[in-house]
Amino acid sequence: MRVLRVTxxxxxxxxxxxxxxxxxxxxxxxxxxxxxxxxxxxxHILVLYIDADGRDRGVRVYRALQRWEVIRVNxxxxxxxxxxxxxxxxxxxxxxCFQDSPRAFIKVVGKGVELEAALRxxxxxxxxxxxxxxxxxxxxxxxxxxxxxxLLLSILVLxxxxxxxxxxxxxxxxEAALRxRRLVxxxxxxxxxxxxxxxxxxxxxxxxxxxxxLRMDGWRLIDALVARDAITVRxxxxxxxxxxxxxxxxxxxxx
Length: 255
Ligand SMILES: [Zn+2]
Hints:
The protein is of the alpha+beta class. Helices cover 35% and strands 27% of the residues. The protein contains eight helices and twelve strands. The chain is globular, with a radius of gyration of 19 Å. Residues 8, 10-11, 13, 41, 44, 46 line the site of zinc ion.
């Protein structure tokens, strides 16, 4: 199998893309004759365009890629995840990421949105369906403001949630992650002072989370979340939303 190697013009990272049959078939069937393979770089995405003969037809860096038909994500992205070993998301556009052709999928379908995931084991399969339904509900609400980067970020969060017991209201977390480029964190200083008084007793809020979030006043949510370690992303997101529920933090929608 051939491997294309390109250097990202934005961050200098060297990205390797294996030219598999699925990618070439995607290029053949696409109206442009090109298939895009996306490589996740945290706050940006590198897309490598490949034609049906497997030739490199250029790269582009995107902060927010919002319109595409079918995009294949470089399977190296799967190495950031512990539970998901392949996925396909459809919400008008299709995003898929597979290393091979997995046989066993879990599939959930909502209004106009669909998520299929192949898991590394069936250990967490019973939780997975509930989490995936929360994810789809978040996607249904946030799809209009989502882009490829925030979609992949929210898949990382989903992956890190699968071993946990399903959480009521988690759709809000996925919605916020998907819209994170358009949400700005606003901290209510008075509420924050009050909250500090009893925060030490709240053990679920991991050490340092409160101070970290309170320093994020004025940040875009995406900048607070960007990390390639899924558990870190999830902890930050859930801390911010816990403070939102307590009126300490507000997420303001901006253009
Ligand atoms: Zn890069």
